[in-house]
């Protein structure tokens, strides 16, 4: 069986929690100290319930899903797009739903659609990601 066949009808749900350790580590790496992410008073003045989590943490969760949760590790992320729909906050529990949308056997490419759902089953982000498969 070709590795690309592993992705036919592929769908997976992966759970994540936005932990303070993740938040602080991302802050250190990115050096993004925008008050929307770091100052609760500022965030509340802007209409949020608290500091808004960094959107790129969700991108990192996609990277984890592609690198660690697929049926083979012989893959490389090629493109990714994401649309942020609702803010995410510290300690939020999210479920990533990742599903095959297209398979291009001739060039060993799989395109997935994905969405992140919060505890209220609301979509907080969605997008597409394309991977290449090493045969």
UniProtKB/TrEMBL annotation:
GO terms for molecular function: (3R)-hydroxyacyl-[acyl-carrier-protein] dehydratase activity. Residues 14-104 form the MaoC-like domain. Transmembrane segments: none annotated. One of its GO terms (biological process) is fatty acid biosynthetic process. It comes from the Bacteria. InterPro entries: HotDog_dom_sf, MaoC-like_dom, UPF0336/Enoyl-CoA_hydratase. Coiled coil: none annotated. Pfam families: MaoC_dehydratas. PANTHER family: HYDROXYACYL-THIOESTER DEHYDRATASE TYPE 2, MITOCHONDRIAL, HYDROXYACYL-THIOESTER DEHYDRATASE TYPE 2, MITOCHONDRIAL-RELATED. This is MaoC-like domain-containing protein. It comes from Treponema peruense.
């Amino acid at each position: 069986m070709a590795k690309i066949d592993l992705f036919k009808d592929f769908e997976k749900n992966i759970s994540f929690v936005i932990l303070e350790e993740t938040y602080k580590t991302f802050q250190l790496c990115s050096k993004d100290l925008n008050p929307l992410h770091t100052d609760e008073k500022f965030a509340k003045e802007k209409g949020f319930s608290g500091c808004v989590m960094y959107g790129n943490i969700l991108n990192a969760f996609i990277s984890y899903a592609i690198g660690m949760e697929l049926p083979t590790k012989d893959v490389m992320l090629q493109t990714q797009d994401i649309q942020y729909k609702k803010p995410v906050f510290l300690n939020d529990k999210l479920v990533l739903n990742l599903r095959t949308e297209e398979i291009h056997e001739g060039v060993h490419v799989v395109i997935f659609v994905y969405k992140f759902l919060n505890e209220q089953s609301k979509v907080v982000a969605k997008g597409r990601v394309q991977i290449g498969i090493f045969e």
